[in-house]
Amino acid sequence: MIDVPLSALEVAMVQAGTRAVDTLRDTTAFAQRLDALGYRRLWYAEHHHSPAIGAFPPVVLTAHAAASTSAIRLGSGGVLAPNHAPIMLAEQFGTLAALHPDRIDLGIGRGPGTFDEATARALRRGAGPTTDDEYLDDVAATLRFLVEEVALGTLPEPWLLASSDAGAALAARLGLPMAFAHHIRPDNTLTALDHYRAHFSPSPWCESPRVLVCVETICAETEDEAKWLAGPMNVVKAGLLKGHSEVPFPSPEEASAHPFTAEERAGVTAFGAHQAYGTPETVLRRLTEVAKATGAEELMLVTPVYAPAARLRSYELVKRHAATP
Known about the structure:
This protein is of the alpha/beta class. The protein is built from twelve helices and nine strands. The protein has an eight-stranded parallel β-barrel with strand order 1-2-3-4-5-6-7-9, surrounded by eight helices.
């Protein structure tokens, strides 16, 4: 049994040999099933120009899922501030919150959402990477526009996404709840959370530090099956270790034949030691350890496996066993 709420992150992996539209169609059934299972929230990540991840705007997926679910909170995890005008983010998520009161989250991040420099510049109309000050101004302006310009009543719940001390420092300075990307930068988690809690300034948005930690989680009936399901994402990670961003999301069969180098295998293994893979008992133990080590008030699970049915099964197994003493 785990004593913190569980949520989910949707990264919309596009299976090799399929079309992005197939992945898009699966997102509705996924949201409805997580709603029925009692997950607290479901967030959508912003990605662009990737063969492995669909380029589906979080605001659009949030609107669609909110119309077909009844209780689960929905939002961005995150929408990337440098790619959008602050007033547009405020209008979009403010409208969603007015249409679906107390169910919309606005998770804001900084990255470009792509490894391709030309795509990043196209998203930003030719501009280069934002500075720390520009990012702070964008986030602050978005929050200000929500209150002063949009003013539609119920506001979305704002979160700042972070994967480093710098992101944690900004969340603390602005007095925002923080969602930490343990599934991306696990080595940074504890120091960033310590900094956030030590320097947090209360705000109208959040009175005290509030932490959500995202963990890569793959749950199956057996350890071997979980390892099999983890194979495709391990291939993608191995490509990223070599600086290759254009890696398709292979099937488990293709992943099992991938020729990992010793360095790649070591890197993948080291990363996995911080995440939660295995049987329900193993996964719940690992999630409990992460919650205890980080002091997180909530855990968000990201499950990048190949088949939609296997992905849903992972979430079902976790939720069922999480509620069992």
